[in-house]
C-alpha cells in the first residue's frame, strides 16, 4: 500500500511545482510554454481525483473497522501501534486533501492564464484594426 502514497506524493510535488512556475512573476516568455504543458497534463492528472476518493474511502473504512484501544485495555506496544496507525491515516488524509486542492488551483490558474492570453490576442487584433 505504500506505492500509491509515493505516487500521490510525487503527483502533489509536480502539481505544486507547476503551480509555482505558472504564478511566478517575470517569466512571461516561458509562461506560454508552461501553460501549454500544464493544459496537456491536466487530463492525466484528472485520474488522480477518483484514485484519491478511493483511498479516502479506504481510510474511512479502516477507521471504522479499527479495534478500539484505550490505554487501560491494551499493552503499551499495542497502544503505540494504534496511535501510529491513527497518525498515518491523518497524514494520508492531509495528502489527499492537498492533492485535490492543488489540482483545483492548477486547473483554475491555467484556465485564467488561457483566458488572459485570449483577451490579449483580441486586444492586439483591435489595436491592429485602428
From TrEMBL:
<protein>
    <recommendedName>
        <fullName>Endoplasmic reticulum transmembrane protein</fullName>
    </recommendedName>
</protein>
<feature type="transmembrane region" description="Helical">
    <location>
        <begin position="93"/>
        <end position="114"/>
    </location>
</feature>
<keyword id="KW-1133">Transmembrane helix</keyword>
<keyword id="KW-0653">Protein transport</keyword>
<dbReference type="InterPro" id="IPR008417">
    <property type="entry name" value="BAP29/BAP31"/>
</dbReference>
<dbReference type="GO" id="GO:0005789">
    <property type="term" value="C:endoplasmic reticulum membrane"/>
</dbReference>
<keyword id="KW-0813">Transport</keyword>
<dbReference type="GO" id="GO:0006888">
    <property type="term" value="P:endoplasmic reticulum to Golgi vesicle-mediated transport"/>
</dbReference>
<keyword id="KW-0812">Transmembrane</keyword>
<comment type="similarity">
    <text>Belongs to the BCAP29/BCAP31 family.</text>
</comment>
<dbReference type="GO" id="GO:0006886">
    <property type="term" value="P:intracellular protein transport"/>
</dbReference>
<dbReference type="GO" id="GO:0070973">
    <property type="term" value="P:protein localization to endoplasmic reticulum exit site"/>
</dbReference>
<comment type="function">
    <text>May play a role in anterograde transport of membrane proteins from the endoplasmic reticulum to the Golgi.</text>
</comment>
<keyword id="KW-0931">ER-Golgi transport</keyword>
<keyword id="KW-0256">Endoplasmic reticulum</keyword>
<feature type="transmembrane region" description="Helical">
    <location>
        <begin position="45"/>
        <end position="63"/>
    </location>
</feature>
<feature type="transmembrane region" description="Helical">
    <location>
        <begin position="6"/>
        <end position="24"/>
    </location>
</feature>
<keyword id="KW-0472">Membrane</keyword>
Amino acid at each position: 500500500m505504500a506505492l500509491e502514497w509515493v505516487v500521490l506524493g510525487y503527483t502533489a510535488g509536480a502539481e505544486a511545482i507547476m503551480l509555482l512556475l505558472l504564478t511566478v512573476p517575470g517569466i512571461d516568455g516561458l509562461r506560454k510554454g508552461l501553460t501549454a504543458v500544464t493544459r496537456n497534463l491536466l487530463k492525466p492528472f484528472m485520474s488522480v481525483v477518483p484514485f484519491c476518493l478511493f483511498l479516502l474511502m479506504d481510510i474511512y473504512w479502516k477507521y471504522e473497522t479499527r479495534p478500539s484501544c484505550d490505554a487501560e485495555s491494551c499493552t503499551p506496544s499495542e497502544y503505540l501501534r494504534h496511535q501510529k496507525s491513527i497518525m498515518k491515516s491523518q497524514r494520508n488524509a492531509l495528502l489527499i486533501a492537498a492533492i485535490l486542492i492543488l489540482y483545483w488551483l492548477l486547473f483554475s490558474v491555467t484556465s485564467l492564464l488561457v483566458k488572459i492570453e485570449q483577451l490579449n490576442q483580441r486586444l492586439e487584433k483591435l489595436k491592429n484594426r485602428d
